[in-house]
Amino acid sequence: MECSTAWEGLPAWGTAARADLWVALEQPGPWGRDALVESRLSPELGERWGAAVAAVGGRMLLIRAPGQHAASDGFQSRRVFVSGGLAGGGWLLEGVALTEDEFDAVPWPLVAAGDVAGVRAACPWLRPAAPVLLVCTNAKRDRCCALRGRPIVNDLAAEGLRVWECSHTGGHRFAPTGVVLPLGQVVGRLSVELGREVLDAAASGRFAMGSLTEAHDRGVSFLPPREQAAVSAVRAGTGETEPIALAVVGDDGATVTVQHAGGRVWEVAVVRAEGQALPESCGKPAKPSETWRVAPA
After folding, report:
1. Distance of alpha carbon 70 from alpha carbon 131, whole angstroms
2. 165, 177, 132, 209: which is closest to 4 by C-alpha?
């Protein structure tokens, strides 16, 4: 049984990969299990750039356009997305790096600080961009991602929407899974309809209502898992789609305090719940499943 089939019906809250910023670099052709060092991109470059992004709390992905594309060796002009300032609603820059040196010049500490003006001053080839949806299709990491993710990407791309295939984002048991930039929201169990709704809402700087359920909302990447789960629960209960309307103002290890910009406060009990043994990835042995049990007060 595929891992994403085994996990159907279990909540996805609190499972987004942790990242204070996201970087996506176009790399056509095949990807291995560890895409940054197992693709037609130089392994030395992939390792160095991935480490530089990780050092400032970010996550780097490879992306490729939907459909058939020729593999290429060496560094050629590549589409790049850089997204930071996530806790404040987020911003997204897009451009084409013509050389390795241009990509090397991206000031990752400024990206981590949310200094979009500083980043643009250092890299004038990066310009403000409309939201994108990056959907994991990394088959060598888990077959669920390719089997379930690629059809979603192809259908959305056929509608002219801003969607790319991407490398591993974590959580293939919730495939098809994607990252919405610049919101930093990670959405699981995507459908064509949900992908369309997510991009439409993001264009207005908001979360999609349909993404706020425990089946789909894996959380915002800039929060740790417990806080992701608490905020997701409050969003689902209130229908709040404004990204910066909710903030975590306390966490004592048992209860997470979430405050609305309008002043309302929720004390959310968040505990780990152990369930039946399930595989977290295709081909791996089953182990007790873990989810977050969330109870807003």
Report:
1. 26
2. 177
Asked if the structure places residue 141 within a domain, the reply is yes
- Domain assignment present for 240: no
Domain around 39: 1-225
Render pLDDT for 157-202 as a digit per residue (tens, 0 to 9).
999 999 999 999 988 889 899 999 999 999 999 999 999 999 999 9
**Is residue 94, in this structure, part of any structural domain at all?**
yes
DSSP bridge partners of 26: 63
pLDDT value, residue 213: 97
Are the CB atoms for 297 and 254 separated by under 8 Å? no
A 10 A CB-CB count for 271 gives 12
CATH code at position 165: 3.40.30.10
Sole residue written with tokens 């089997």: 147
Q: What is the pTM of this model?
A: 0.94
Integer Cα distance of 292 and 273 in angstroms: 6
Q: What is the DSSP string of 47-108?
A: HHHHHHHHHTTEEEEEEE-SS------S---EEEEEEE-GGGT-EEEEEEE-SHHHHHT--H
Give the model's pLDDT for residue 82: 98
Q: Enumerate residues 6+ apart whose C-beta is below 8 A from 158.
A: none
Kindly indicate the confidence band of residue 67, based on its pLDDT and cuts at 50, 70 and 90.
Answer: confident
Number of H helices, E strands in the chain: 8, 14
Residue 116 has phi, psi (to 5 degrees) of -65, -35
Indicate the pLDDT class of residue 283, thresholds 50, 70 and 90. Answer: confident
- β-bridge mates for residue 267, sequence order: 257
Amino acid (one-letter) located at 233: A
User: CA-CA distance, 245 to 111, in Å (whole number)?
Assistant: 23
